[in-house]
Amino acid sequence: MKTKITQFFKSIYYLYYDGFVNMKVGKTLWLLIVVKLFVMFAILKWLFFPDVLQEKFHTDQERSQYILNQLTKEN
Question: How far is CA 25 from CA 14, 15, 16, 46, 52, in A?
Answer without folding.
Answer: 20, 18, 15, 31, 42
